[in-house]
Specification:
The protein is α/β, with parallel strands linked by helices. About 40% of the residues lie in helices and about 20% in strands. It is built from 15 helices and 24 strands. Strands 14-17-18-13-12-20-21 form a seven-stranded mixed β-sheet, with helices on both faces. Helix 3 runs antiparallel to helix 6 and helix 9 crosses helix 10. The chain is globular. The structure holds succinic acid (SIN). Succinic acid binds next to loops.
Length: about 475
């Protein structure tokens, strides 16, 4: 990696304001999913070290929570600014460890900065309430206080934005954080910590540990100093965290798997729908929780829509994310490739017709696939594919489309295209998901509440709702 500021590439952990190696000497090697080459290593900490980082965060909490909200805001604003100043280097690190095209990586860095900037603005707006009391001699005051030390566990698909989204809200609220980034992509998180230090985040307020996921999860859930866990990842792990954190009654936010439907009605602007489908399905090579996973197209416009979609899918360019013009990078690892192939083979076996792509892989690279004649019994309808595979399923009526869209235990995002305002209102109400994109699939932004229902979890990130996740209500009765 050629970085203007090589200090951004830290092969260490960070707690108590210090860069550290593990006492065990154990490391995790990180590779570039495009080339398979090792790009660096990070420590694999032991449980005592995780506990130490939590102790440090607990001590820092006592002073950070006392800082005026405007001081916390100033630090967050500067941190966001620094992300933008270093966008090229951060994108380089991100593309090298995660694979996404450089343009997308830069977009993710800006997206991460937007959370730091948004929550810098929200910190001084942590309003309480006064409530008319039952007696004249009384006053009721409601104030919102930070919950305490937060354990934040983040995924590999958006390694800088998902961490910024959590830590910005937590720090704005007055909490402190011990973060555990995904093993596949720790360097973006460590670069974020480095810039946090430059922005003036006091030692102990934001800490990062890398190591065995299960062990760190156990320490987060069993250490009574952890008062909040925010997790983005699979439903399977979300369930485990919920079970394990029950004993300490830890406040949880779980942003889990999705299985987003996109419905194209016959009254839609088809060109707009094609654009939205491509953006939402193939962003990050299909490795996004809010990616379109199931495409439902009304039969009367089915052939015309598929024809337009085929042209757009064929225009996608697969390759190393560093290369000019590439729009689809590699999948993160071979397990992801295997899942893509399993879903491809299953759809073919159940009668789907291949329009483009071939289900073959070259290392971690796969060509984007478009298929037609999909059925709800196919694997891609049952679970997230997390890869660039799109199968269209025809439908006849609005009722049928809604039934198909809701026929999943997941409920993160859903999308539909229609120019009929009555239909827009009906379908918006009927869809079972935490987020709905109408005639638009770029739904993620710092000002809006991101999160799901059903097996996609609970809690919201971003927006004014996002800060509530890190606050608790204290009611004070002034009497006498
Ligand atoms: C995710 O895949 O979990 C988040 C993507 C986004 O914020 O849009």
């Amino acid at each position: 990696m050629k970085l203007k500021n090589p200090e951004l590439f830290q092969q260490a952990n960070y707690w108590n304001g210090q860069w550290r190696q593990s006492s065990t000497g154990e490391v995790i090697e990180v590779d570039n999913p495009s080339t398979g080459k090792i790009i660096g290593q990070v420590p694999s900490v032991n449980r005592a070290e995780v506990a130490d980082a939590i102790d440090v965060a607990e001590r820092a909490f006592q002073s950070w929570r006392q800082e005026p909200a405007h001081t916390r805001a100033k630090v967050l604003r500067k941190w966001g600014d620094l992300l933008l100043t270093h966008v090229d280097d951060l994108a380089e690190i991100l593309t090298t460890e995660q694979g996404k095209p450089l343009a997308e990586a830069k977009g993710e860095v800006r997206y991460a900065a937007s959370y730091l900037h948004w929550f810098a603005e929200e910190a001084p707006r942590n309003y309480g309430d006064t409530i008319p009391a039952p007696k004249t001699s009384q006053k009721i005051i409601v104030q919102k206080q930070p919950v305490g030390v937060c354990g934040c566990i983040t995924p590999w698909n958006f390694p800088i934005a998902m961490l910024a989204r959590k830590v910005a809200a937590a720090l704005a609220a007055g909490c402190t954080v011990v973060a555990k980034p995904a093993e596949a992509t720790p360097f973006s998180a460590l670069a974020l910590a480095y810039l946090g230090e430059c922005a003036g985040v006091p030692g102990g307020v934001f800490n990062i540990v890398t190591g065995d996921s299960a062990m760190i999860g156990d320490e987060f859930t069993e250490n009574p100093k952890i008062r909040k866990i925010s997790f983005t990842g699979s439903t399977r792990v979300g369930r485990l965290l919920q079970e394990k954190s029950g004993r300490n009654l830890i406040k949880l936010s779980l942003e889990l798997g999705g299985n987003a439907p996109l419905i194209v009605f016959d009254d839609a602007d088809l060109d707009l729908a094609v654009k939205g489908t491509i953006a939402a399905k193939f962003r990050n090579a299909g490795q996004t929780c809010v990616c379109v996973n199931r495409l439902f197209v009304q039969r009367s416009i089915y052939d015309e829509f598929i024809k337009k979609l085929k042209v757009a899918v064929e225009a996608l360019v697969v390759g190393d994310g560093h290369d000019e013009g590439v729009t689809i990078g590699p999948l993160i690892h071979q397990k992801a490739v295997e899942k893509f192939q399993k879903h491809f083979d299953d759809a073919v076996a159940q009668g789907a017709r291949v329009i483009c792509g071939d289900g073959k892989a070259n290392g971690n690279f796969v060509k984007p696939v478009l298929m037609t004649d999909g059925k709800p019994s196919m694997m891609f309808c049952q679970e997230e594919t997390f890869a660039p595979l799109l199968v269209a399923v025809p439908f006849d009526t609005e009722e049928e489309a809604i039934q198909l869209a809701n026929d999943t235990p997941y409920g993160l995002a859903s999308y539909f295209y229609s120019n009929n305002i009555s239909r827009v209102m009906r379908v918006t109400d009927a869809l079972e998901s935490g987020m709905v994109g109408v005639n638009e699939t770029a739904i993620s932004n710092a000002t809006a509440p991101f999160g799901g229902v059903k097996w996609s979890g609970y809690g919201r990130e971003g927006s004014k709702y996002g800060m509530d996740e890190y606050l608790q209500v204290k009611y004070v009765l002034l009497g006498g």
